[in-house]
């Protein structure tokens, strides 16, 4: 989509639940040189496996944290006058930082007029600002008017603060066209297989994550029998049930109770009753080959992360970042 623009990688939240220590070096080996995390602690963890990369910390400079940023050679994303002043006093032009400008999100960042007022202010030089950035509000919905307003505001900001490389496009923003690309792309969700164009096109990304869980037990139940806590599900006829070794303690959302599915031998098997902390019950009546020890797929094949998120009444981002610590992770390729 933008072959001449630097492509960074957003690896916050333990690389979207996929494991920072494995993911970040693989991306570096593929050519990535700039990485973004959310918190200082994530930056320190990233530095341990990325000795030479530029590591930006999106959530800014907490009071008194400057020495830790300097020790681990992390780049704070500064979003207020207070942060600018504190970092400038420490940096004195010797350590880099990014400037975050709010073009519509109303979360973090200087407002556009505040940032424009910094033109020719030596504070920017003293703070070592080497990247200008903002965050898109609704990039996944390309027809939303706010996209055009933000792109226009960011272009005006660049005119007011010339000579500073700039970054606006997140995963979905990359698909808004060249006006959103600037000098650095910041994909996150798309790197992990999520669909950056959910309202306009089929997912252009390859699947990355697969989640399988073994069947612990198969049982036959008569019509009228209930299953799971509070007997929320009642068998309409004789059914064959399978119990999986996974639950909401593993990050598989309880909100997917009676709305989600798993694939067994390629057949979509509904989740029955309430998802427990450690167990899920499936209806495998239509899968004669289902047996103890067989694997059920909860993410993978036609159950991509976006599909799983919708079934749980949430988004694929939450499914990914909620992947729990009890899973046995197996990495392929790279």
UniProtKB/TrEMBL annotation:
Catalytic activity: L-alanine = D-alanine
Domain Alanine racemase C-terminal: 208-332
E.C. number(s) listed in UniProt: 5.1.1.1
GO CC entries: cytosol
Pfam families for this protein: Ala_racemase_C, Ala_racemase_N
Keywords: Isomerase, Pyridoxal phosphate
Metabolic or biological pathway: Amino-acid biosynthesis; D-alanine biosynthesis; D-alanine from L-alanine: step 1/1
Source organism superkingdom: Bacteria
Protein residues bound to substrate: 107, 277
Database matches in PROSITE patterns: ALANINE_RACEMASE (PS00395)
Named cofactor requirement(s): pyridoxal 5'-phosphate
GO terms under biological process: D-alanine biosynthetic process
Residues with N6-(pyridoxal phosphate)lysine modification: 12
Active site residues of this protein: 12, 229
An annotated Gene Ontology molecular function: pyridoxal phosphate binding
Function in brief: Catalyzes the interconversion of L-alanine and D-alanine. May also act on other amino acids.
Family named by the database record: Belongs to the alanine racemase family.
This protein's name: Alanine racemase
Gene designation per UniProt: alr_2
């Amino acid at each position: 989509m933008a072959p001449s623009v630097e492509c960074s990688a957003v690896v916050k939240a333990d690389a979207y639940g996929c494991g920072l220590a494995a993911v970040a070096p693989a991306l570096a080996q593929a050519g990535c040189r700039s990485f973004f995390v959310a918190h200082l602690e994530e930056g320190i963890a990233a530095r341990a496996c990325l000795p030479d990369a530029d590591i930006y910390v999106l959530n800014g400079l907490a009071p008194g944290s400057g020495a830790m940023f300097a020790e681990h050679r992390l780049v704070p994303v500064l979003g207020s006058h207070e942060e600018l002043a504190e970092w400038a006093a420490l940096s004195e032009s010797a350590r880099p930082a990014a400037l975050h400008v709010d073009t519509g999100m109303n979360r973090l960042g200087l407002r556009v007029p505040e940032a424009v007022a910094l033109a020719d202010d030596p504070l920017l030089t003293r703070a070592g600002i080497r990247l200008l950035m903002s965050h898109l509000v609704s990039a996944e919905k390309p027809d939303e008017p706010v996209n055009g307003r933000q792109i226009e505001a960011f272009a005006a900001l660049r005119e007011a603060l010339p000579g500073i490389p700039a970054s606006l496009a997140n995963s979905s923003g990359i698909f808004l066209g060249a006006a959103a690309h600037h000098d650095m792309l910041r994909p996150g969700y798309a790197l992990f297989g999520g669909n950056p164009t959910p309202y306009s096109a089929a997912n252009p990304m390859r699947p990355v994550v697969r989640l399988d869980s073994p069947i612990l037990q198969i049982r036959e139940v008569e019509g009228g029998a209930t299953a799971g806590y509070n007997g929320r599900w009642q068998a309409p006829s004789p059914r064959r049930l399978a119990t999986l070794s996974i639950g909401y303690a593993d990050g598989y959302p309880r909100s997917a109770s009676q709305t989600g599915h798993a694939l067994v031998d390629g057949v979509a098997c509904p989740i029955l009753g309430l998802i427990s902390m450690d167990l899920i019950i499936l209806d495998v009546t239509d899968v004669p080959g289902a047996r103890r020890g067989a694997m059920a797929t909860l993410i993978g094949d036609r159950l991509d992360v976006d599909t799983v998120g919708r079934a749980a009444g949430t988004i694929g981002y939450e499914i990914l970042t909620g992947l729990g610590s009890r899973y046995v992770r197996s990495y392929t390729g790279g």
